[in-house]
Amino acid sequence: MLRRAMAVLLVILLLLGSAPAISHAQAPPAPGVPAGAPGASAASGADAIGATPPRLGYAQGPVSFWRPGASDWAPAQVNTPLVPGDELYTGHEGLLELQVGGRAYLRAWGDTQLGLANQEPDFLQLKLTTGHATLDLRSVEPGRSVEVDTPHAAFDIQAPGYYRVDVTPERTTFITRRGGRASMTAAGGQPVVIASSEEVVVEGVPVPTARSFASPELDVFDRWNYARTDELLESVSARYVPPQVYGADDLDHYGNWRVVPTYGSIWVPQAVPSGWAPYSTGRWVADPIYGWTWVDTAPWGWAPYHYGRWVFVDGFWAWAPGPIVARPVYAPALVAFFGAPGVSVSIGAPFVSWVALGWGEPIVPWWGRPGYVGRPHWSGWGGPRVVNNVVVHNTTVINVTNINVYRNTTVNNAVVAVHRDGFGRGSVRESRVEQVDVRQLRPVHGRLDVKPEPASFVAAGGAAPARPAESTLTRQVVATRQPRHSRENLPPALRDGPVGAAGPVSVPAPKIVPAPKAAQVAPVPNRPPLGASDVERPRRSEPQRLEDMPRRGGAAPPVVDRDDKTREAPPAPRTQGGAGSVAPGRDDAKGRDDGKGRETPRRDLPPALRDGPPRADAPGGQDRGRGTPPAVVIPQPTPRQPQPAAPPAARQPQEPVRPQQPAPPAARPPQQPQDAAQPGGRPLPGEPANRVFPGRSENRPHQTQPVPAASRQATPHTAPAASHQATTPTPQRGGFSPEHRNERAQTPSTPAPAVQHKGGDETDAHKAPRR
After folding, report:
1. SS (H, E, C) 487-537
2. Distance (Å, rounded) from C-alpha 336 to C-alpha 653?
3. Rounded to an integer, what distance in angstroms lies between the CA atom of residue 667 and that of residue 392?
4. CB-based contact 35:29 (threshold 8 Å)
5. Which CA distances in Å does 617 have to 452, 622, 711, 746?
6. Which secondary structure element, helix H or strand E, spans residue 226, and what is its range?
7. 571: phi > 0 → left, psi -120 to 50 → alpha, else beta; which?
8. Are 32 and 46 in contact (CB under 8 A)?
9. Is the distance from CB of 308 to CB of 269 less than 8 angstroms?
10. pLDDT higher for 412 or 731?
């Protein structure tokens, strides 16, 4: 009997020793909550990781980047996550886009200095010292606010809308549209409220004055912002990822969604080279908050590298986002690090290696505070939890020392390794180790002891394409909070930045003003005084009716009389297609071949944006200023005259209806002044209220002057001057140039630049590079 009991006990001990070490325990504490402190057990992994950093999602032309710790400005790299203290600068022909929310975008045009001053879960603080920027906020989470600090005032935004900020040495203008509302606090002043469709002009230092005007007409930059946001939000990939995940639109253009039984919806990237593996086409960047962060060079390289898991299915790498969760959690990378046997990942190790996490595998953080580093978790993951290829329960915490099996290590070329002196100092391709014996690798459970160097703080090498002026960097801004610079987390040798004028060495501290308090809103809020102006904004035309709008393929269909017995031919039946297919024959199904056998929609930039804001030394630029690009008149379609129907007795057999050629749109009729006499002969009482800022170029009187011949260089998108004098040509896509800007006041019928949406037709030979 005793022997039998001893045998049973021995079997139980053997089973416990061979199974994965699983113990029921509490969730890992957050980095900001010490282990054992009150509330440590309730801290979730999502709270531990923090807010999603802004993503540099688009860069066109000369765009430069600097981070505290770097030795110099460097070219900006798409997919770079920003941290407080980062600076961006666009050259004259530069353009950039930051995604700051699931449905929120910030864009900057040429000659713009932009910085991220602070980011908290409910607060985003931006700094704009010069240039042009827009905030297209289609939604704002309750309790969250966005602050824009400028040299003249601080602007606080808490409501969805469209906001435009233009900063020059003389003034700052702030425009609200689409129901947006904000508050402004100038240096030495009290907070005032900015209503919707309003422009506030702040001038003068050290005590600036503010004036209120009606918002001006949309210009070419505003129209491009409207169209681009509409396009980004019409993403098919949004069906498979949570709305808070950035970069979903990029997945539509560079891969295909498939459904497999094991993993559900997966995304397969296209045009990847042979032997490619995840986390192999980019570099590791030192992030003062998240530690070593992966920045991929692929245009789609955001969502698949900060969310979900990677799987290998039927010889293809695919990204598996897993079931949609209510609150996704950003991670600097989703990989497992390895070291050589018996050593840790440090300067003394021969190389550093890593592999993409597989389906359901936990992340072991290498960033954060003590008590969080090295504690495995599945924060933001909605699928099953897998440890050592074994599915575990959701209420358990794993002993990290027993996690030693990662499924993707069995895939050929999946483990990426670099030499010790190449990690975080350049592209992975430059220092990758081709032959790796995965059997000799040991997982690293904890912090990576690799010290960053100045080259580790930028995501691209080479000389910066543009540099801001010293006067721009040293301009003091007005703010409601002190900036939270990430340089405080850097080693002392890297904390002060470069020597000399190569980078922002000593950014002046902002001038702090009281923040507007929502709980102390007066019954009648303070408003900026109305500004004096002789120019009034014209009345808006009535919205175009559906029957008056032309079809995409050409002119609008002819009006058919109700008594006519003829009917149009029924539409062709739809054909069956795969996932994401569209019916053949539709205009939006047309695209262009990207050279890899697939049709991709175009995202061409209007030449007016590629050329940058108007320069002061350009023809007609002296009196235009650089505060705001010019407004563009929208061409209205020519109204059709109803066709009289023939008597029934005289009807003849009708011929098939031939498609009509598109007719050039007619120009908008000139607006009459709003203070003109009414039909009864009585003038309107009082003075005009919707006055616009007279300092804008489109509101100043222009004299008809011929444009110098030297400025009329032959370009694919520039029409001869004589064509504007005779007739207005049919607008071509991209048919807008700097000459059209200067001639807008003389030729109001000049067509606006067509902003290309997905699936539009290609009608000109001038193509902008895709992002």
Report:
1. HHHCCHHHHCCCCCCCCCCCCCCCEECCCCCHHHCCCCCCCCCECCCCCEC
2. 76
3. 68
4. yes
5. 44, 6, 12, 20
6. helix 220-233
7. beta
8. no
9. no
10. 412
| Structure tokens that stand for 594 in this block | 């990207």
Please give the structure tokens belonging to residue 388: 């050592």
Cβ-Cβ contacts under 8 Å for 245 (sequence gap 6 or more):
102, 303, 307, 321, 328
- pLDDT averaged over every residue in the chain: 74
Tokens of 98: 């930051």
Helix (H) and strand (E) counts in the chain = 11, 34
Q: Average the pLDDT over 741-745 and give the result.
A: 36
Distance in angstroms (rounded) separating the CA atoms of residues 618 and 625 = 10
Mean pLDDT along residues 709-730: 35
Q: Over range 727-744, report the average pLDDT.
A: 33
Which has the closest alpha carbon to 363: 427, 312, 419, 306? 306
Which distant-in-sequence residues (6+ apart) come within 8 Å of 388 by Cβ? 20, 402, 403, 404, 405
pTM: 0.72
Task: Tell me how far apart the alpha carbons of residues 133 and 387 are, in angstroms, rounded to a whole number.
Answer: 47
Pair 606, 723: CB distance under 8 Å? no
* Residue 30: strand pairing partners: none
Please answer whether residues 294 and 282 qualify as being in contact, where contact means their C-beta atoms are separated by less than 8 angstroms. Answer: yes
Backbone angles phi, psi at 144, to 5 degrees: -100, 145
- Rounded CA gap, 175 and 216, in Å? 8
User: Whose structure tokens read 């019409």?
Assistant: 234
DSSP 648: G
Confidence of residue 236 (pLDDT cuts 50, 70, 90): very high
pLDDT for 408: 97
CB 100 within 8 A of CB 106: yes
Cβ contacts of residue 169 below 8 Å, gap of 6+? 130
Q: Beta strands 104-108 and 145-149: pairing type?
A: unpaired
Residue with tokens 């002057």: 705
Distance CA 173, CA 164 (A): 8
Higher pLDDT, 477 or 399: 477
CA distance readout (Å), 673 to 236, 318, 392, 695: 46, 61, 74, 19
Q: Which residue is it, tokens 């915490």?
A: 397
pLDDT in tens, 522-553: 566 787 887 777 777 676 666 656 556 554 44
Single-letter amino acid code for the residue at 138: R
**Which residues are CB-contacts of 652 (< 8 A; sequence separation ≥ 6)?**
none
**What does each C-alpha distance from 620 to 378, 503, 628, 698, 752 come to in angstroms?**
60, 34, 14, 12, 19
